[in-house]
From TrEMBL:
Gene3D superfamilies: Chorismate lyase-like, Winged helix-like DNA-binding domain superfamily/Winged helix DNA-binding domain. It comes from the Bacteria. Residues 19-87 form the HTH gntR-type domain. Keywords: DNA-binding, Transcription, Transcription regulation. InterPro entries: Bact_HTH_transcr_reg, Chorismate_lyase_/UTRA_dom_sf, Tscrpt_reg_HTH_GntR, UTRA, WH-like_DNA-bd_sf, WH_DNA-bd_sf. This is GntR family transcriptional regulator. The keyword Transcription applies. It comes from Pseudaminobacter soli.
Length: 261
């Protein structure tokens, strides 16, 4: 970190009747980010180093940093340290097309990648039995991955399929749909349900956002052209990164309307 950037930590001074020290430090860091003195991805010094530089306690430093993490200005990565959060470019996702994450990002000129979290065969849950039409004695294939765009975690996808559709989850490479294509099991259409939830635990850490952050939970049931259910997916999308867009048309005579006028 440059000398100019480090100087933001030496500006905290106790003043009678002034703001608490942690708020002074918090404001110094916020101002530095806004002015570009420290930019996205830059690492902050350790709490100990900041405390020594600013001549304040580590408890004060920790409180300022935690507030900035909660507000999304900083991110903490376990075992790595504290960094200025990347600037998020919001992604506008159409709800009228069934496309892959990789294709969506490519159309926006963004580099897409994935980290596999799980590929395995398991006893089905009650939801998987009901939605995929399985018996209690059948097993289910599950594949889960963290979706990344331009090195920023964007979503967690957890897909469940029957073994008839995906007998070997380990065979899935970069694209699940490409694998399903080979067996004639690629979905033709899907129905999605979107709800707002707050991230907790491991999902928050995977997406590098504070616990309690708003996100979009999406359940998608995908169908073959024949109408058979082929895939049940539950996904978590960052609320600060995605806008889902749907085109609405006025219902014609005799058609059901989805809203009021």
């Amino acid at each position: 970190m440059s000398e100019a950037a480090e100087s933001i930590f030496s500006l905290v001074k106790a003043s009678e009747g002034g703001a608490p020290l942690y708020l002074q430090l918090k404001k110094n860091i916020e101002d530095a980010v806004q002015r570009g003195v420290i930019g996205p991805g830059d690492a902050l010094p350790s709490e100990r180093d900041i405390a020594i530089k600013a001549d304040i306690s580590r408890v004060t430093v920790r409180k300022a940093v935690q507030d900035l993490v909660k507000s999304g200005i900083l991110v903490q990565r376990h075992g790595s340290g504290t960094f200025v959060a990347p600037r998020m470019e919001r992604v506008e996702q159409s709800l009228s097309r069934l496309t892959s994450f990789t294709d969506d990002m490519a159309r926006r000129g963004m580099s897409a990648s994935s980290v596999w979290l799980d590929k395995g065969i398991y006893p089905p849950s009650p939801d998987e039995i009901m939605i995929l039409g399985l018996s209690a004695k059948e097993l289910v294939a599950r594949v889960s991955r963290l979706r990344i765009a331009n090195e920023t975690p964007m979503a967690i996808e957890r897909a469940s399929l029957s073994l008839a559709a995906l007998p070997d989850p380990e065979a899935v490479g970069s694209s699940l749909y490409s694998t399903l294509d080979k067996t004639g099991s690629r979905p033709a259409r899907a129905v999605q349900r979107i709800s707002a939830v707050n991230l907790v635990g491991a999902d928050a850490r995977l997406l590098e956002v504070p616990e309690g952050s708003a996100c979009l939970h999406i359940e998608r049931i995908s169908y073959l052209a024949s109408g058979k259910v082929i895939e049940f997916t539950r996904s978590i999308y960052r609320g600060d990164a995605y806008d889902f867009v749907a085109e609405l048309r006025l219902a014609g005579p005799g058609e059901e309307s989805g809203g009021t006028t």
